[in-house]
Amino acid sequence: THTHTHTASPDINQPTLCPTRLLLVFLMLTVVHPGDSLSCKLSAVSLHYFLLSTFGWLLCLSHTVYWFIVRVASVKRNIRVWVYACLAYGIPAGIVLITATTAWDNYAQDSVCWLDGSSLMFLLTVVVPLGTILSVNVVAFSLALCAVSSTKSATRWLLLKASASFSMLLGLGWLFGLLVIAFPEVVAFQCLFSLSLVFHGVLMLYFQVYRNHQIRNEYIAVTSERFGTTSQ
């Protein structure tokens, strides 16, 4: 019989994934004048790196979900974090370094500081990695959902919460992003992608903050100490 003893939680990567996402969003919102300038290219390189790093952490998280939910196996947490960090930070750094070395001019476009979407380098260093990771995450999502549905306590509400939680953790909303890349003229895909990102943020706030008992207890302790109130 499997037990949950010493099993790492599925949110093991959140302390590292969240800052990476924050930097990615910051770079996406940062206004840099497009054109053949050094600042534009550096912004595109940074955006490229943190996008790949974010997906690297999502891939590591899918591995965590698989072992925690499907296999219910015990894995040494400290070893896994170091391996995850090397994969999520090291491999994207190598990809971006190769891209910047071989196709530096592709990082600056007339209208946007980003890789040329029509180039082979964009296909190999953006579309292929993202598509591969999302495919793996879809499989992990399906296996985890099947594992939850097979439990005796499974209900429709439990399956709904599991679906929302797993899809949020594994970044499945980016599937619409790949559709936007493949069919940029379809406005419906752009709207679905934007809505999925908003929904993803709401779910992360709910599951990772509001439903996190440790964070809630810390918040209650801090507010009680500051305002002199006591929790029930």
Describe this structure in words.
By secondary structure, this protein is mostly helical. 72% of the residues lie in helices and 0% in strands. It contains eight helices and no strands. Helix 5 packs across helix 7. The radius of gyration is 20 Å and the shape is globular. The N terminus is likely disordered.
- The coarse overall form would be globular
Q: Kindly report how far apart the N and C termini lie.
A: 38 Å
- What fraction of the residues are assigned to beta strands by DSSP? under 5%
Low-confidence parts, pLDDT < 50 over ≥5 residues?
A: 1-11
Structural class: mainly alpha
User: pLDDT average, as an integer?
Assistant: 76
Reading the helices and strands in chain order gives HHHHHHHH
How would you name the oligomeric state of the polypeptide chains in this document?
Answer: single chain
Question: Nutshell version of this structure?
Answer:
With 232 residues, this protein is mainly α. The chain is built from eight helices and no strands.
